[in-house]
Amino acid sequence: MTNHPYFYQFLEPVSKELALVARELENSIFTSPRMMLTHARVFVENILQQVIYAEKLADDPRANLKDRIDLLNLNGYLTPEIRDALHHVRQIGNQAAHDSRKFRYSEALLSWEAVYKIVSWYLEVYGPVTLKIPEYQDPTPRMEQSYEMSEIEIRLKALEELLTNSRKHEQQETGFAETAVTVEITKDTAEPPGFTTIRMITYKDRKLEVPYFLRDAFLLPQRFSKSETFLIRLGAEQQARIMSELPSNLEGLHTYVKRYSDKNSETFFEELQNYIEEEKIRRRLTLERPGELFFFYKSDHIVVTEELSRVTLNPDEFKGIPGLLRQLNEDDIKTVEQLPKELVILAKYANVGIGTVEKLFDQLKEKQLVVK
Prior knowledge:
Layout: H1 16-28, H2 33-54, H3 65-74, H4 80-98, H5 105-126, H6 149-173, E1 197-203, E2 206-211, H7 228-236, H8 262-288, E3 293-297, E4 300-304, H9 306-309, H10 322-330, H11 354-371
Antiparallel strand pairs: 1-2, 3-4
Helix pairs in contact: 1-2, 1-6, 2-3, 2-4, 2-5, 2-6, 3-4, 4-5
């Protein structure tokens, strides 16, 4: 999935962190006006802290946004227009942080316009003379799948922390005028929706990032071939059934059930790593090809065409798996389109092992090639 352009890309040569926070604000305007209004305060406050540093004014770390606006205004650094724009972002942001009413897109757009005035002033006075500031433009809602509100908040908070740390680093290492590019961002923050890291799971010295879209994923034991029985036993103890139930450190996970060792915890960690990578591939597929039906088996997949979906599940069409076909028909699953998206689930049937499911998947792949 390619990264979309965003309005404040022109800010990147001055501060990539500021630009990325602005991008998340833009993404949130039509997703959650409240969130945009709340976090716009943090964005402009970071700009004011840069100005205070550049002008060598004393900045009290306990000061809030209003204090910093007043400090710059009393010292003659703000025009009435910029002062009013700053107070607008501050006041509507405070409302959004404390008032339970519904906030409108129009309010977020007014704040967005005020932010533009503030950024333009900041760059004209303190930015590189060669930087060209584009004309203001309203953002437009995107038609493709967007980030969920809580994921945007996670992204914003992470970027704001990065912005704050970067500003402190710059002020310690160099003067403002000498700073052209901020601390390098080592990780791409423009992942597709759902890919933001929500938590870390560790095992000894190894770490595993859990993406947002898997935060409450059901850990189907059949997806973990070496740990299937281990997970079934853990599930019986109400442990490790869903991702959010997993402890942050998997050392000692085996102690919840009898006759298992730390080797089982280690093996599960390794399989969990593979599971997350497989799920990321699946997620990208569904984002890139919305509305299409997929069947998944381990790390492989099939795109289910309309013609393939109508194929009947009977011994004439699928050879060597009569027991599975009979049980599917008994459950009123009679055509391919009625099969579960996660084919490994079919191993739940009596006398049906993973080898039988693989036979079905291979034959589906062959039919897919024939009916293309």
